[in-house]
Amino acid sequence: MTPELLSMSNAPWIFVSAMMVKILLVFGVTMGIVAYATWVERKLIGHMQTRLGPMLTGWHGLLQPIADGLKLFFKEDIIPAQASKVPFLLAPLMILVPSLITIAVVPFGGDISFTYHGQTYLIPLQISDLNIGILYVLAMAGLGVYGITLAGWSSNSKYSLLGGVRASAQMISYELAAGLAIVAIFMMSESLSLRDIVAAQREVLWGIESLPHWVHNWYVFSQPLAFCLFVVTGMAEINRTPFDMPEAESELVSGFCTEYSSMKYALFFMAEYANMIVLCAIISTLFLGGWDGPFWGPLNLLAKIFSFMLFFMWIRATFPRVRYDQLMKMGWKLFLPLALANIVITGIVMVL
Amino acid sequence: MQVLFFYLVAFVAVASGLLVVTCKSPVNSALALVNTFFCLAIFYVMLHAPFMAAIQIMVYAGAIMVLILFVIMLLNLGVETMKKTTHTVWGIVAGSLVMMLTFFFIKRGQPANISGPITNEVVESVGHTQLIGKHIFVDFLLPFEITSILLLVAIVGAVILAKKEV
Known about the structure:
The complex is a heterodimer.
Chain A: E1 4-5, H1 12-48, H2 64-74, H3 85-102, E2 109-116, E3 119-125, H4 133-154, H5 158-181, H6 183-189, H7 194-200, H8 219-222, H9 224-237, H10 249-252, H11 262-287, H12 297-318, H13 324-351
Parallel strand pairs in A: 1-3
Antiparallel strand pairs in A: 2-3
Helix pairs in contact in A: 1-11, 1-12, 2-11, 3-4, 3-11, 4-5, 5-9, 5-13, 6-13, 9-11, 9-13, 11-12
Chain B: H1 2-22, H2 26-46, H3 50-75, H4 79-84, H5 88-108, H6 120-126, H7 128-139, H8 141-162
């Protein structure tokens, strides 16, 4: 019997249970990475600055994330008297939720076949294969701005407000360049669905048959400029260190989350790492072949995500913060024209 | 199932629409408006138009509302400014006129009962994005280009107005 793609119409109960398992698995893995990314970052930056990082809780501070979580959980939850209550409460959720639901469209492996009552079903290792996958990712990235902006405004403190205003200006400008940088990818794959983009990257590089068979058509080879642009603008969009103007400690205390405490602060912290994981997953999927590679699908994707996260941490340890006017000038006068030029060049090459 | 879901989303859309006009604080109104846009995007998905849904969120919720929120935050309109501008009577008159018009059209308007070439099945098989792309860049290329030039003129105009010396 020919294998069928598992869907709501051919086997509703298996579909629903497979979906629940996939969602729980992806959520669990993401949260696990979020918790331990904090530990890895502190250790790594510590060693790069010839310190030791956390050492006391557990072996080499391995229990530190749990200790931090417990500490934040039991701290007093302070809402400033002058704050606007509703946006103040909503802001941490509005920043964490968009980044977590973006993971739903990232494919993390090939299809698994599953036989039930003689019928073979194929379970795609992706929570949802949206026809408009990339647009969904961009739309959710756009919604992430609200969290920071509202957190900054509703705290009713000058540092928070400045952080929030900087964040929204920065994220709006860089979103544009990031969106334009990946237009070249749609042009090459002729699809917006992440599943099809990964499938297109599993073919032979540039259609040259004489190359060894393990050289795949990853878009980083055809689109190096778009890759660099997307990595840098992505870093600016998730407010990682060379671009962390919204929470520049030396100028703004702690930026938009100055007034937050307890679990709400923890949510901001989790959102920062969740955003980083999502960005790494999207970069790997768009430019580095997603789950394509020498090992089992999910392991390949995780390896790519981890190497990108280590790269971001390395940059955080070594680069100074850019100045705000330089940041805006770079976004509008350098990255945007480069992304547009890249689209034009890709178009010309494709027509030829 | 789908009908139940529609009513749930419709309820949220109407409730947040009401919140937009009744909230005291302009920021809360703006947030309620974002929620309304989100519900509209869900309606687009239910009408087999996923591309429109993504664009709705990207453009309206992700860009335009952020700018509006930005302006509200920077101007910091207080509750006093809100109270000065209440036109309850005119609001009721205009609202009931629009409502009458809507009911009129719902009662009068018969669906033409002619199905065009683009049905749900075509959208499912070809893809919504592909259909829109083909129509914009093949069938309606000239109107599309004219619109883009119009927008470009508007952008240049805005820059000239905003800058004192060009």
